[in-house]
Amino acid sequence: MNARVELDRLLPQLAHSHLDWLEEEAIFILREVAATFERPALLFSGGKDSCVVLRLAEKAFKRAQGNGRCAGRLPFPLLHVDTGHNFPEVIAFRDQRVAEMGERLLVAHLDDSIARGSVRLADPLESRNGHQSVTLLEAIDEHRLDCLIGGARRDEEKARAKERIFSHRDSFGQWQPKEQRPELWTLFNTRIRPGEHFRAFPISNWTELDVWLYIAREQIPLPDIYYAHERDVVRRRGLLVPVTDVTPPRTGEAIERLQVRFRTVGDMTCTCPVESPASDATEVVTETLTVTISERGATRMDDRTSDASMERRKKEGYF
Amino acid sequence: MSAVLEHEAQLALAAVAPQADHRALRFLTAGSVDDGKSTLIGRLLYDSRAILADQLDTLHARAAGEPIDLSLLTDGLEAEREQGITIDVAFRYFATRQRKFIIADAPGHEQYTRNMVTAAAGSDAAVVLVDLTKIDWRAPVVELLPQTRRHALLAQLLRVPSIVFAVNKIDAVDDAAAAYAAVRGALQRFAHDAGLTALAGIVPVSALRGDNVTRPLHTAWFDGPSLLELLERLPTTQETTHGPLAMPVQYVARDGDGVGHQARTLWGRIARGRICTGDAVQLLPGGHRAQVQAVLRAGRPVPSAGAGESAGLVLDRQLDVSRGDWIAAPGSLRESRRFSATLAWLDTEPAQIGRRYLVRHGNRWVQARIGAIEHRLDIHTLEPTDAHELAVNDIGEVTVELQQPLPLEPYADNRVAGALIVVDPSSHRTSGALLVRETAAPS
Question: Is ipTM strictly over 0.85?
Answer without folding.
Answer: yes
